[in-house]
Amino acid sequence: MEHKKDLSRRAFLQQAGLSGIALTIGYYWPAIGKSTGEIVRADDVTELMSWISIDSAGKVTIFNHRSEMGQGTWQAIPQIIAEELEVSMDQVRVQYVTVHPTKYGPQPADGSFSIRGWYEQLLRVGASAREMLIEAAAKQWGVHPSECYAENGEVVHRVTGKRLPYGALVKDAAQLKPPADVKLKARKDYKIIGKPLHRHDAGAKTNGTAVFGLDKKLPGMLYAVVERSPRFRGKVKHFDDSAVTSIKGVKRVFKVRRPVFDSWYEGVAVVADSLWAAMQGRKLLKVEWDDTGFEHLDSAQIAARMQADLNKFSSPDSFEAALKQSSAIEAVYEMPYQSHSCMEPLNCIADVKDDSIEIWGPIQEAIWVQADLSERLHVPIEKVKVNMTFLGGGFGRKAFLDYPHEAALISKEMKAPVQVMWTREDDMSAGPFRSGALYKCRGGVDTQKKIFALQILSAAQYFGPGADKAPEPQALKENTGGIAGIIYDYYKTIPHYSFGSVAIKSPIPTMWWRAPGANTDAFAAECFIDELAHLALADPLAFRRAHFTFPRYQALVDKLAAISNWNARGKHQGWGVAITECFGSMVGQVVKVSRQDAQIKIDKVFALIDCGWYVNPDTIRAQLEGSIVMALGAAVNHATHFEQGRTVERNFHSYPMPRMNEIPVIEVHIMENEEKPGGVGEPGLPAFAPALCNAIFDLTGKRVRKLPFRLDNFL
């Protein structure tokens, strides 16, 4: 379904209302943007409303309009605004806002876009508030604003040294018209941007006062769990709740459904006055499912379908001719399906009344939820209130619309607030999942030890409506198309390339997963580029650099070689490299491995990111470390398989997460330059798996072309 796109596109510059003696300031910039859930490219511009509130005591509240799932918006957005507002983070309190598209603008958290898409607007919010406070002080002193400046939450008169705290100026500043234009600081003048400040949410998450979705409670709230079809699209044919109703506290048992793209997935809800009662009642529920009308696929059948679809491509004659002119090789790479497996399982509270809906929970895309509920339940959008809590991980899964909608339907049926809880088994077996993928790679090098021809064809499951009615692959053309995650200079320096993808048909629900596209494509691309380097008898890092013409890419390679001491390594000692690009940032990783009998040990990971202008280096390091750990798990620990249309791995005993003793030493470095900001939350993931597998080849001479594989039994 399409969501309404006219949520807000008006151009205005306005001052918000005054509450008591608090100054609340906000700006709204119109632009070309997307509010339909698409990943937005770095060179697109979007819109933003952000708010600052200053009370009479000078305490500054910055309202965070984005979800916080560990990626650091709770720190970065206030840190940006505070820089231009001239206050320290010790003077700042951070608070969530509810979704309000006409007041705050779009509020998604996707595509690592929170900073790269909004940083300049955030800076202007802080700078405009500062200038209003300076103007208010200048009027009190009877001087020109140019004679005044702001620092540390005060306005200072340069000549006399007089000072007025922001709290003493809020009444007067609230009456002023916000400036139409403001001058922003030069980077060299920053006091807090670029500094490794402690995160504002760290204390609350440590002492247990932070409110995640699972922590939120409402008066009179009921609890619900849902028995779901183990075959995704199964319908409820019949259920027997006679034993369920004998459990004390169980209120009702009824059929419910949730939307997954263009399908409705059915289940049976057990609602009780406690979570324990609901879960015990569910154990006694008997459901007969109608599993007709869709395929019940095994993993082996899916893999065979991918292989068959790859063989349907017709390669351009010009590319085939170029391939014959070079020294050529080919390889096939395979990536598995993956669960999101956030540490906090899905959950949501809904309170649906006759003319209003209110939601609380770990919502990654609040504005999409608001629009979806308004449209589907026929409630005016201004009557749908979505409250964000902290998220215990998101990775794209908590950007989906199904679980809030399901909670809303259950609340509507019960005429009471209801918290719907997903068990770990629900979360891991019901999907949607990251699609597996199969890649056929062919390529050749010329006498100059450079890539002359490169073809990468992929078969995977696309997400969205009609996934089980996928089209046939289109005829390929030379030097068209692309593959996610690779450095853009390859499109310029490889004379002949051919990229193509085909969507396989499958009823299994799939969707985005951290660094979508790049998290699978880059594995095949960067491993195969390493194979081409070996074919050319070239140093793998130097081979890559030879294809980079952009100085920014070359600087990344040089820095990566320096921090890892790459040029001092010996031959066949277990060094691997991969360099990827996605969401406006470039990441290079070097992995060092060693061998102990049949065990491969990851000794160290060097990670270098060029994300341009950045806010907090500690947050960047944390995101790259977390991305590498997640990539490690997906490479060697876990995968999702299917038998007769059912998920095999349903909990962490069969889908193991990396343990602390499995995590290698990770050394993170950040490039310093004057480039525009790129993403941080996702770009650190794609490079790890190919760098690891390339390191294993360097050590053992064996190529790893299928994930996951075992480090503890590498024969």
Q: What is the CATH level 1 assignment of the largest domain?
A: Alpha Beta
Tally of separate domains: 3
Strand content: 15-25%
Strand neighbour order, sheet with most strands:
10-11-8-17-14-15-16
Count helical runs.
17
Task: Note the gap between the termini.
Answer: 49 Å
Count the E strands: 26
* Average pLDDT number: 90
**How many whole angstroms does the radius of gyration measure?**
27 Å
Shape: globular
Task: Assign a percent range to the helix content.
Answer: 25-40%
| Main structural class | alpha+beta
Q: What CATH architecture label of the largest domain applies?
A: 2-Layer Sandwich
Pfam families: MoCoBD_1, MoCoBD_2
GO molecular function, one term: oxidoreductase activity
InterPro entries: Ald_Oxase/Xan_DH_a/b (IPR000674), AldOxase/xan_DH_MoCoBD1 (IPR008274), AldOxase/xan_DH_MoCoBD2 (IPR046867), AldOxase/xan_DH_Mopterin-bd_sf (IPR037165), N-heterocyclic_Hydroxylase (IPR052516), OxRdtase_Mopterin-bd_su_IorB (IPR012368), TAT_signal (IPR006311)
Protein name: Isoquinoline 1-oxidoreductase beta subunit
3D structure, described in words:
With 715 residues, the protein is of the alpha+beta class. Helices cover 26% and strands 24% of the residues. The chain has three domains: 23-207, 2-Layer Sandwich (Aldehyde Oxidoreductase, domain 4), CATH 3.30.365; 216-293 and 346-421, Aldehyde oxidase/xanthine dehydrogenase, molybdopterin binding domain (Aldehyde Oxidoreductase, domain 4); 312-337 and 433-700, Aldehyde oxidase/xanthine dehydrogenase, molybdopterin binding domain (Aldehyde Oxidoreductase, domain 4, 2-Layer Sandwich), CATH 3.30.365.10. The model is unreliable at 1-21 and 27-49 (pLDDT under 50). Strands 10-11-8-17-14-15-16 form a seven-stranded mixed beta sheet. It is built from 17 helices and 26 strands.
